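Form 7-S
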Amino acid sequence: MNTFSVLIRSILLSGVVLGVGGLWLSPTSHAQNLTYTPTPSNPVGRAPQAITSGDFNGDGLWDVATVNGTSDDVSV
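Output:
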């Protein structure tokens, strides 16, 4: 191969490497569409005084419980 074709191949290879690297480092290539979906609210009894969380029903999901002062009960 002559010097000119080696130079052309080197330039083309450099362009490909820089182009792929530029796409990889581009901030838009890592952008994510994040959305927030509010969870439904759950009413509690009158005058809630304390709150705790745990898997109370064994379904593998965390539950929230409140102690209600004036209604003398617990909301889960």
